[in-house]
Design goal:
348 residues; alpha+beta; Beta-clip; D-Maltodextrin-Binding Protein, domain 2; 3 domains; 5-stranded mixed barrel; 3-stranded parallel beta sheet; 18 strands; 27% helix
Length: 348
């Protein structure tokens, strides 16, 4: 009926067999239809990764490539098992889709949008399953790229120790793309006065966690171990969300008091109390020149050195001064950085 109203041809929906990229639970009482994303499989059978379920998950309507058909009296299906699915877009489109299985970061969605706008004929399909899920997908040939931030609890280093462990024969390439600031999120104004996980345990604050296998979940476990605490002491430790923005949204809605997340998600909904990923600024060696010709020693700094009109030795001395003024600590945790500027705002 909708096709007739829009004066479009009625498309016949194709039914195919897909292989599940992760375990899917289902109720025995009902026949269920689950939206999923598709990526090319190593054996020619498309791999389906189920999307978030529930009436409130509107984005799954936009992202879905197919609808999985889970029969009644089935408890679901195991990872790697075969399942019937109805296509929502032509299967040929998968040949021009870059399949990314990732730990969630809004930057990936932005990058996918830029690729689409470029008119290259290719698209990126990202599915948020956590860092460990990304490693597993790459190892199993279910994706061509994975975004990870895996903390090694023994060394405190990210990614390299874990990937050496999972790919001892070197069948993966690690490309360092971006660094990010991560910390404890709470409601605006931090009404409970929370500073760390010890405060969350002491006050009984409602915590919302990330799913198992997520890099943020591993970080949470690492911090608890460092503090000599147990997960059972955290009120809400078993309460899980699949993305940083979902955690921030729960806090903003008042159904949770705190959770670990990245700065970009915190800025959208709530606030970042205290950065935890200190190595981000400790290792940063960058200075930036914005579109106005101002040199900024830090992305989060409100101070800068005007370079426009300078030449020769004068310009060299100004740049040297900017390097020497580069802060050693997180600017976003200082009071003077109340007016944080993002990359697109400074043009750098």
């Amino acid at each position: 009926m909708l096709c007739r109203m829009l004066r479009q041809p009625v498309r016949r929906s194709s039914r195919i067999e897909v292989r599940l990229g992760r375990r899917l639970n289902s109720s025995l009482k009902y026949r269920e239809f689950v939206r999923a994303r598709l990526s090319p499989g190593p054996d020619g059978v498309p791999v389906a990764t189920p999307l978030n379920r529930g009436a409130g998950v509107v984005t799954s309507f936009v992202k879905a490539d197919c609808i999985l058909d889970i029969p009644q009296n089935a408890e679901g299906a195991e990872k790697g098992g075969l399942c019937r699915a109805r296509l929502l877009r032509p299967l040929e489109d998968l040949e021009h889709t870059l399949a990314i299985v990732d730990s969630h970061d809004p930057l990936l969605d932005e990058a996918a949008d830029l690729l689409r706008r470029a008119g290259s004929g290719f698209s990126a399909s990202s599915t948020h399953v956590g860092s460990m899920g990304a490693v597993t997908a790459i190892k199993g040939g279910e994706a061509v790229m994975g975004a990870v931030h895996l903390l090694d609890e023994e060394t405190g280093a990210y990614n390299v120790p874990q990937l050496r462990r999972f790919f001892p024969d070197g069948r993966a390439v690690l490309v360092e793309c971006v660094q990010r600031t991560q910390g404890l999120m709470a409601a605006p104004g931090n009404p409970m006065g929370l500073r760390d996980l010890d405060d969350i345990i002491r006050t009984g604050a409602r915590y919302v966690n990330r799913q198992r296998g997520a890099g943020t979940r591993i970080l949470c476990d690492y911090l608890l171990k460092q503090a000599g605490r147990e997960p059972s002491q955290v009120n809400g430790y078993t309460r899980e969300e699949l993305t940083h923005t979902a955690v921030a949204a729960q806090i903003a809605a008042g159904t949770a008091d705190a959770g670990l997340g990245i700065y970009s998600a915190a800025k959208l909904y709530v606030g970042l109390i205290r950065p935890i990923s200190h190595k981000f600024c400790a290792q940063c060696q960058r200075i930036r020149i914005d579109s106005s010709g101002t040199l900024r020693p830090c992305l989060h700094s409100t101070e800068g050195i005007a370079l426009r009109g300078l030449h020769g030795k004068e310009l060299e001395n100004a740049i040297r001064a900017g390097i020497l003024r580069k802060p050693r600590e997180h600017m976003i945790s200082a009071e003077k950085s109340a007016q944080t500027q993002m990359m697109y705002q400074i043009g750098g």
